[in-house]
Design brief:
Elements lengths: L23 H14 L7 E7 L5 E7 L2 E3 L2 E7 L3 H8 L2 E8 L4 E11 L2 H8 L4 H9 L9 H14 L11 E6 L3 E6 L7 E7 L5 E5 L3
Antiparallel strand pairs: 1-2, 1-5, 3-4, 4-7, 5-6, 6-7, 6-8, 8-9, 9-10
Helix pairs in contact: 4-5
Length: about 210
Amino acid sequence: MNLADLRREYASADLDESGSADDPHEQFSRWFSEAQAAGVPEPNAMTLATCTPDGAPSARIVLLKGYNSAGFAFFTDLRSRKGADLAANPRAALVFHWAELERQVRVRGPVSLIDRDEAAAYFRTRPVGSRLGAWASTQSALLAGRAELEARWAEREQEFAGGEIPLPPHWGGFRVVPNEIEFWQGRVSRLHDRLLYTRTLEHEWHRVRLSP
């Protein structure tokens, strides 16, 4: 396979100022709904990029679990690499890629820790196995083998058998509070549409078009 020849043309839609919302949160909601309607698998999957204080980046796929004008929420083990990065350097970037619609959304801004009540409310909606997993796993820590992890899970299953599985003290959520949101629509001949919304000092949104 010659990677230089591996490409596709984009031609399904356009993105212009007259057809886009003045508020990027409204525009995101429109696009997210369209991704769901189009049958995009896991439309809430997003790349989360974090950075250590000395500039070493990390990226991984996580799931969006809430969004509104306050920001984009996700949940994790606070002891993980992303948890450590965000505790020391509370800024992040997100990327949503909906290939079926030839669209991307990029988000950048500071990150705040979600309060424990909100995290607990979400934790209660998770499947039982996932809640047990949050207790059994020390995310990003070394394991001797899978059997060790499964044994821990079984221990927690026995510990909480028939009772409530509480929110672990090491588990919680973060909210990315956007300063910038960019919407990208693939177009013919790589003349893609890019609209960038930037939050002003007055907490209003300013929209511009970027070159592809």
